[in-house]
Amino acid sequence: MKVSMSCLTRAARMAAAMIVTLALPFGQAASAAEPLSAIGKGEGALNIVAWEGYAQDDWVKPFEAKTGCKVNRKYAGSSDEMVALMRSGGGGQYDLVSASGDATLRLIYGHNVQPINIALIPAWTNFIPALQGPSFNTVKGVHYGVSYEWGPNTLLYNTQKVTPAPTSWSVIYDEANKGKITVPDNPIQIADAALYLSKTTPSLGITDPYELTQPQMDAVVVLLKKQRPLIRKYWALASDEIDLFRNGDATLGAAWPYQTNTLQAAKVPVADTLPTEGVTGWADTWMVSAKSPHPNCAYEWINYVTTPYVQAQQAIYFGETPANTLACAEMDKQQAGSCKQYHADAGASYFDQIHFWKTPLKACGNGQDNCLDYGAWQRAWQEIKG
Amino acid sequence: MPVSASLTGLLWRRPALRVAALISLPAVWFVLFYLAALAAMFISSFHTVDELSGEIQPGWTLDNFRQLLGDWTYGRIALRTIGIAAAVTLTDGLLAWPFAYVMARYAGPRLRPALMALVMLPLWSSYLARVYAWRLILAHDGALNWLLHGLGLPAASIGYSNWAMWIVFTYLWLPFMILPLFASLERIPPSLLEASSDLGAAGWRTFRRVIVPLAMPGLVAGSIFTFSLTLGDYITPLLVGGPGSDFIGNVVYANVGVSNNIPFAAAFAVLPLLVMAGYLLIARKLGAFDAL
Amino acid sequence: MRFDLARTLLWASVVAILAFLFVPVAIIMVYAFSASNIQGWPIQSFTLQWFARTFADDEVRSALWLSIEVAVVATALAMLMGLLAALAVYRIRGAASEAIAFAIVLPIALPGILTGMALNSYFVLWGINLSFTTIVIGHATFCTVIVYNNVIARLRRLPPSWAEASADLGAGPWRTFRLITLPMLSSALGAGALLAFALSFDEVIVTTFTAGAQTTLPLWIFGAIRLGQHLPEVNVVVCVVILLTIVPVLLAQRLMGRAALLHK
Predict the structure, then answer these.
(1) Better-predicted residue by pLDDT, C82 or B55
(2) Which of C145, C198, C204 sits opposite B124 (nearest CB)?
(3) Which of A3, A42, A303, C132 has a 20 to 30 A CA-CA distance from B44?
(4) Three-class secondary structure of residue B180 per DSSP
(5) Partner residue facing A90 (CB), from C127, C223, C227
(6) Between chains, do B15 and A243 touch, taking CB under 8 Å as contact?
(7) Same structural domain for residues A233 and A365?
(8) Are A250 and A233 in contact, with CB atoms under 8 Å apart?
(9) Which is nearest to C109 in space by CA: B288, A114, B287?
(10) Contact B35 A20 (CB under 8 A)
């Protein structure tokens, strides 16, 4: 049964032409949304992108019952991943993101998030002043998000296998701990090494761990490349680090308080500490997508999670500090002494000690223009790991 | 009725039309949704991305390829990926033989479907959960070391390493090697083997001279799966890999799902595309397409 | 005697390979009963609470439903396209048939991350929102080859004389197809559909790129794994899925085994 060849060749040629036509791009303009003027009826659903531990049933379930907005959670383990998720599919997939300070500006300048009508968020007036209009979520007086919680990146260690208790980041660069160390698989981790070097090698002149010139970056890369053979695994998921400590693969690591709390709850002998060189940290912001399909539910969520009660729940659960000052009393009610433990009473002085994550830019803080931008950080990180 | 009857009649008389009618739906689907998408990806590898806003800048540039070729990091990652994929394919090829052979030659009519079902069953239990289970087996205080300790043997330190990836990949894709190999072994007529031994060939000789060549298409077909599934994975390296375990897939994922640099990811993805295209061409020569 | 030794060794390796295949599955099942929410070896204490919690979890339920829906629709599409493509390719020879076969094999032969990424950027290009439909498009594309392979293999083994006899007896092509060809293809179609369903049901890599805010079961499992908080729930889900599928899979194998015997 022979079919005429010329007919098939013609069909093949047509198919090829169609493939190429379909593959050529055409532009699509992004629209800027106006902020909501009043919170209307909920849309019945809410899609959020959150850090691991930021959307726990403890407060998601009551929220769903109260507002009728069914929460759809997607977890992300790095700021980069959050930005990518908010941009995925042309945006409009997700309503809300719990972005850290190193993602917020990228989302604002990428027109991925919409301005917030702060008058609709009553709890905002009780925020610590530093988080009412911080530069990482408020541009030219326009609020692009509502601050949530903040905290430090800690040094986690196994209390039985690491004695005496470490006080310096030097342990994670120490040959003696080869194969027992884990650090986050995240380019922003470069800042941790830069902070360490700014104290141990002052001659490099690092003043801000997020503003690095090429020679400074070179020195950081040398340190991190020396660290690489000591690493058991670069953790990408919170559970990576939990398993590494639970099953004895790692005894030292850079961590979030979330891992410490989870491990301690499972009776694993671990503790964390803020080393003397100082720490990096995060200050997170709930931001609403520019193309949010459920904006009313998004505002309902922001209002719900900024109430003192939920702020306290989140703070205790993750081990961080709430933005709402009224949460302190609530924290002590939920777990005695937790307000002091998580510094909710410490205010500005403690806040200033943490070097919060921010997006590295070409422009250094001092007016110079010779710093490395985030693209260079990502390439450096790939080179370190590779 | 007359219309449909005349249409059927037309299709019956004109075989070319009949084939065209049959193929039209799959053809449109594959052109529209798949081949065009691949072409779009290939085209986008010549674009760049604005780093702050994340928007793709159209235009034609070789920057992405230059960056890939200029940095030995990516070469190492590519070699590691291809090397482990080859090792996994080889291991699965070896492991699949006894199993497929027993299934095709020795297993009775009752045992054979049971063995078949047992090979298929792991495919129904989440791939992610199985990879995760291996983490517990290979961890420092995991099941393997517990067993070794119980036997008085020294502990193995293979958790979170390339060895772990090799084991887990071999495990994951083994059924994909066993099934096509079994299918081609099953097709060998027993009379042929009898003829071979009647002609005085010993068991090993029959195996090498008759069975292996006839099973080759099935083996190659299986190897397409094991090789390509390993080549394109990024979750197993993420879960069980160590500090130097990034695959091409991890770099691609990091650039799509993390830094949103689709052009760069697309440029790197051209490599597995070329490798698989070459592999498929060789596989076609070996007749594997009929055995898939 | 030597021959028997070879045979014993072969059977021993079959048992060893089965153990290799099933040890991780066994671990998953056992850890569904672990009291601790993070996994360590060996299990310290046992509980049934995760079953109750998982059954009460509507997120798990909706993810499971979504996965079943996706798999059903994708398998149906794959059966249709695989069957049509196989019937077409069976009727032609030469470059055209090879090109079609190549295009159909491509989605499974190319690494999943390529398919996923290509589809993702393609949908974005056309301004198509990621949704249930985009997940199905991805799955149907790589499932088609499974059905196609099964059907074409069966077609090539069928004696053409049957269809010819039917035509000689005056049956039209559609009637011949319906009464002769289709019944003879049914077990191949069934086997292909079963495998396609399994493939779609457990797919992560392509789905990661083609799903928006939708959570299929594997995506939910990945979320639970990365959170590291409710791992036994993952194990419970996997246990339940295995138990639900073990019967149909066994039955299908028996049926197909019987069909194969009948052919001989």
Answers:
(1) C82
(2) C198
(3) C132
(4) helix
(5) C127
(6) no
(7) yes
(8) yes
(9) B288
(10) no
**Structural contact between residues A219 and A204, judged by C-beta atoms closer than 8 angstroms:** yes
CA A210, A213, A219, A221 torsion-angle sign: positive
- Dihedral of the CA atoms B87, B93, B94, B97 (nearest 10)? 170
Strands lying side by side in the sheet with A154-158: A231-235, A181-184, A252-255, A154-158, A270-273
| Structural fold of domain C32-263 | MetI-like fold (1.10.3720)
Provide ipTM, 2 decimals: 0.87
What residues of B are in contact with residue C226 (Cβ under 8 Å)?
A: none
Range of the domain at B231: 69-290
Name the residue of chain C whose CA is nearest to A264's CA. Answer: C38
Rounded to a whole number of angstroms, the distance from the CA of C122 to the nearest CA of chain A is: 8
- Is there a domain that residue A331 lies in? yes
Q: How far apart are the first and last CA of chain B?
A: 41
Regarding whether A119 and A68 lie in a shared domain, the answer is yes
Phi/psi of residue B19, nearest 5 degrees? -60, -40
As given in the structure block, the two tokens for residue B6 are 């005349």
pLDDT on residue A17 = 65
- Please, which chains are in contact with A (at least 3 CB pairs closer than 8 A)? B, C
Task: Look at A168 and A81; give whichever has higher pLDDT.
Answer: A168
Q: Do residues A89 and A160 both lie within one domain? A: no
- 3-state SS class at B54: coil
Q: Do A243 and B76 touch (CB under 8 A)?
A: no
Please tell me the distance in Å from A383's CA to the nearest CA on chain C.
Answer: 22
Chain B CB within 8 Å of residue A233 CB: yes
| CA separation for the pair A216, A209 (Å, rounded) | 10
The single residue listed with the structure tokens 């449109």 is B28
> Which of C98, C121, C219, C229 should we substitute to test contact with A (largest number of A Cβ atoms within 10 Å)?
C229
Q: What is the mean pLDDT of residues C40-46?
A: 83
Q: Is the bond preceding residue C42 a cis peptide, omega within 30 degrees?
A: yes
Residue of C nearest to A46 (CA): C213
Point out the least confidently predicted range of A214-223, A229-238, A325-334, C1-10: C1-10
For the cut 60, the answer to whether the pLDDT of residue A1 exceeds it is no
Contact residues, A window 104-133, toward B, CB-based 8 Å cutoff: 105-106, 109-112
What's the number of domains chain B is made of?
Answer: 1
Nearest to B131 by CA among C95, A78, C218: C218
A84 and A175 share one domain = no
User: Are A380 and A261 members of one domain?
Assistant: yes
A29 touches C at CB < 8 Å: no
Residue A109 CB-density burial (10 A; 0-12 exposed, 13-18 middle, 19+ buried): middle
DSSP letter string over C192-261? HHHHHHHHHHT--HHHHHH-SS---HHHHHHHHHHHTS-HHHHHHHHHHHHHHHHHHHHHHHHHHHHHHH
Rounded Cα distance, A359 and A83, in Å = 12
Which run of H or of E encompasses A233?
strand A231-235
Specify if B199 maps to a domain.
Answer: yes
Does the residue A39 lie in any domain?
Answer: no
**Residue A24 located in a structural domain:** no
For chain C, give the percent of residues with pLDDT over 70: 94
Over 50: is that where the pLDDT of A28 sits?
no
Nearest to B262 by CA among C121, C128, A203: C121
In total, how many domains does chain A have? Answer: 2
- For chain C, the chains sharing at least 3 beta-carbon pairs closer than 8 angstroms are A, B
Using CB atoms, which residue from C37, C123, C231 is nearest to A89? C123
User: Do residue C218 and residue B128 have CB atoms under 8 angstroms apart?
Assistant: yes
Indicate whether A266 and A297 sit together in one domain.
Answer: no
Give the residue from chain A lying closest to B256, CA to CA.
A84
Among the partner-chain residues B139, B239, B257, the one whose CB lies closest to the CB of A249 is B139
CATH number at residue B110: 1.10.3720.10
Q: Which domain holds residue A373?
A: 154-278+359-385
